[in-house]
Design goal:
Layout lengths: L18 H7 L5 H7 L7 H10 L6 H4 L12 H4 L28 E2 L5 E7 L23 H13 L5 E6 L7 H12 L6 E6 L1 H4 L6 H9 L3 E7 L8 H12 L2 E8 L8 H13 L3 E6 L14 H12 L9 E4 L8 E2 L1
Parallel strand pairs: 2-3, 3-4, 4-5, 5-6, 6-7, 7-8
Antiparallel strand pairs: 1-2, 8-9
Bound molecules: iron/sulfur cluster.
Iron/sulfur cluster binds next to loops.
Cofactor: [4Fe-4S] cluster; pyridoxal 5'-phosphate
Catalytic activity: L-lysine = D-beta-lysine
Family: Belongs to the radical SAM superfamily. KamA family.
Length: 340
């Protein structure tokens, strides 16, 4: 059996789990409970069950409280409620839309772009977003054992052109802080690495994730820190999220946001403008607006390119340049994101 420990964890069995870990363990993981908690009528259940079979539901309470009950069109609910459309398989929608399997020189490491590599620091997420381009990712094949992490670190040590390590997943912050502190310590001992980038949705989904343990290793590292949050709608940014962002900034973290342009969720000029304004109030700069990657199960979220371009053109009339996210697509084989 493969050793599943990502990084040695010597916590005693009586370990008291952090608040965010308890919240995550209590997340809703079945469609019936989600529909009941939000007072949705039973007609949503069959579709939710179909989608759930393809990609399990996961919604923590801290996120659920931002969803309006009795409203099947709530923009946050639409991101997490499985629907029968996920079973449709239109041409061109595949399980690995970015062909990441082609770029994994060692387990748990993806090297696509010059100067930076991505490490799969955790196979888990705090929420399962229905449009996720990694909804079919073979995490079980990419959860390195401790020895295999050494292979990934050796890869980083050997390539002096690398200046940035990107922690991804899953959600890298779903790993515990001992694991992450160990990994970051290994990274900061590699002299040519300058930056640590963390792609995460956890500070948004469970703001209590930004606790003293996380802030401790973040503040201590010599690496420059960039956190790319993933927020698609202004309703996701409540006071708890703003407070979490403030704490991260105090620890020296540069905060950026990437969104996905999603049909029925944020595909209007006013919604995108409000999102950018709200992000800035929270101390976060809009960075990317991605079109949906053609992953099986997410075709119903797609906004065609011409419509996306028109939206962004109109958005320019409402926002100062520094609040404009860049509209991009990720094209397999390209050496960077492709602006639209
Ligand atoms: S948090 Fe990120 S990786 Fe996890 S399901 Fe959502 S989009 Fe995918």
């Amino acid at each position: 059996m493969q050793e599943n420990i990502i990084i040695a964890d010597k916590r005693p069995s009586t370990q008291i789990y952090a608040s965010w870990q308890r919240q995550l363990s209590q997340a809703i993981r079945d469609p019936a409970t989600l529909c009941k908690r939000l007072n949705l009528d039973d007609s949503w259940l069959p579709g939710a069950a179909t989608g759930h079979q393809l990609f399990e539901i996961c919604v923590p309470d801290a996120y659920l409280t931002r969803i309006a009950p009795n409203d099947p069109n709530d923009p946050l609910l639409r991101q997490v409620l499985p629907v029968s459309d996920e079973a449709s398989t239109p041409q061109g929608y595949v399980t690995d839309p970015l062909e990441e399997a082609e770029h994994q020189p060692v387990k748990g490491l993806i090297h696509k772009y010059a100067g930076r590599v991505l490490l799969i620091a955790s196979p888990a997420c705090a929420i399962n977003c229905r449009y996720c381009f990694r909804r079919h990712f073979p995490y079980s094949d990419n959860s390195p054992s401790r020895a295999q992490w050494q292979e990934a670190l050796d890869y980083l040590r050997a390539d002096t052109t690398l200046h940035e390590a990107i922690l991804s997943g899953g959600d890298p912050l779903a790993a515990n802080d001992r694991q992450l502190a160990w990994l970051v310590e290994q990274l900061e001992n590699i002299p040519h690495l300058k930056r640590l980038r963390i792609h995460t949705r956890l500070p948004v989904v469970i703001p209590d994730r930004v606790d003293d343990a996380l802030l401790g290793w973040l503040a201590a590292t010599r690496l420059q820190k960039v956190m790319v949050l993933h927020i698609n709608h202004a309703n996701e940014i409540d006071q708890a999220v703003i407070d979490a962002c403030t704490r991260l900034k105090q620890a020296g973290v540069t905060l950026l946001n990437q969104s996905v342009l999603l049909r029925g969720i944020n595909d209007s000029v006013s919604t995108l403008a409000t999102l950018s304004e709200r992000l800035f109030e929270a101390g976060v700069l809009p960075y990317y607006l991605h079109v949906v990657d053609p992953v099986q199960g997410a075709a119903h979220f797609d906004v065609p390119d011409e419509e996306a371009k028109t939206l962004v053109k109109q958005l320019l009339e409402h926002l100062p340049g520094f609040l404009m996210p860049r509209l991009v697509r990720e094209v397999p084989g390209k050496t960077s994101k492709t602006p639209l």
